[in-house]
Amino acid sequence: MGQQSLIYSFVARGTVILADYTEFTGNFTSVAAQCLQKLPASNNKFTYNCDGHTFNYLVENGFTYCVVAVESAGRQIPMAFLERVKDFLTRNTAEGKLQLQNPMA
């Protein structure tokens, strides 16, 4: 599994993307944001396939964690990545180390 398997990721609260990152160009950022608008708010995991990529979402406690991966990465690696991001942010925001704020508030 190469370093180019996971190509874009974001964390959102509701439908507002709080932080995102990619080193690649493509329409996957807009597709991922469009899918975010249509996800149910309930805690769950979702994966959508499009144009050789998987759009993987973990929705929990009002936050949505997303990673776009190449289709060959499967589902297990992207979902494990999302769990680690969620755990890191949950642990560090609970301890006051990070402050996630909505810049629009």
Polypeptide structure, described:
With 105 residues, the chain is α+β, with helices and mostly antiparallel strands. The protein has a five-stranded antiparallel β-sheet with strand order 2-1-5-4-3, sandwiched between helices. 22% of the residues are buried.
Q: Provide the low-confidence segments as ranges.
A: none
Determine the number of helices (DSSP H or I, runs of at least 4 residues). Answer: 2
**Approximately how much beta-strand content do the residues carry?**
35-45%
Shape: globular
What strand line-up does the widest sheet have?
Answer: 2-1-5-4-3
Structural class: alpha+beta
Number of strands: 5
Q: Helix and strand string, N-terminal first?
A: EEHEEEH
- Main sheet? 5 strands, antiparallel
Overall radius of gyration: 13 Å
**Helicity, as a percent range:** 25-40%
Mean of pLDDT = 87
Q: CA-to-CA gap between the ends?
A: 40 Å
